[in-house]
Design a protein that fits this description.
Blueprint: H1 4-37, H2 41-53, H3 55-66, H4 71-95, H5 101-104, H6 109-129, E1 137-138, E2 141-142, H7 144-165, H8 167-174, H9 183-215, H10 219-244, H11 248-272, H12 286-306, H13 318-337
Antiparallel strand pairs: 1-2
Amino acid sequence: MLSPAVIAWLEFSLCVTLIGVAGFQLSRYGDIIAEKTGLGGTWVGLVLLATVTSLPELVTGVSAVTVADTPDIALGDVLGSCVFNLLILTLLDFLQREESVFTRASQGHILSAGFGVILIGFVGFNVLLVGSAFDVALGHVGLYTPLILVLYAVAMRTVFRYERAQMAAYAEEHAERYPEISLRQAVQRYVLAALVVVGAGIWLPFIGEQIARVMEWEATFVGTLFVAFATSVPEMVVTVSAMRLGALDMAIGNLLGSNLFDILIVAVDDIFFTRGPILAHVSPVHAVSAMSAVMMTGIVIVGLLYRPKTRLFRAMGSVSLLLLGIYLLNAFVLYLHGK
């Protein structure tokens, strides 16, 4: 008879396999939708893929603040996912053997990355502001919640207007790549793949909690790192699949868009958390993850502007090594402060 630990790891492997197969299809049909509609890969990655692959974080967050009543797990999952999503860029750079991903990616990603700095930094600022005279609430939600909703809406509108200006050139450049598949077929298959990714992604956090229990790992540390990794598996699989299909901009757009959507989840969690503003009930250590994500996003912006061509040991560029270094530093600090 199999032990509980073996069963948990087998379930985890099955779940990741489902996400891997469906994630590849999701990125492929997302690319077809981008071509058929004339929308750029950045916009499709930012909205379609990012929203679908971030739904596990949304479900986990709502469950954490309602059923489990653990706001630290909810916020740790969101900010940990932001940091991990940016780490995935290091993996993309390693897989892109010919040249750095930052030399080929569209500079339009700077828009979404810039909004990411604003939104993530805003949450980190409010985590540290809790308890001061400026800590204002609107009923049981913090003042920051409606501001996050407004900032997210502005970000989506701004990126959409930018992409719309690029539509004609995009459609001309990529026309007739998928003449055998209609837009309706692409949308139907996209929705089917999305349902599989969402279902498996929702299952993943519960498997992660089961693994933490049977392995006797520390709960807070697992919540902010392991659960964040588990709920970010859809982003990782879909992003790598998109890059292998040649849709690099869709891959990067998925990561940066997922970070924007993850911060929107903070506002959603705050609405469902009825004991008061959610950031008033979490550890200030979460500001470390927020600042790590801000620094990593800033590094991505530098890479997109500077476009470094040199690669260390023919494996990855200096930008990717900086991203990896900050991720490891963030993990180490969280480990030291875990209770």
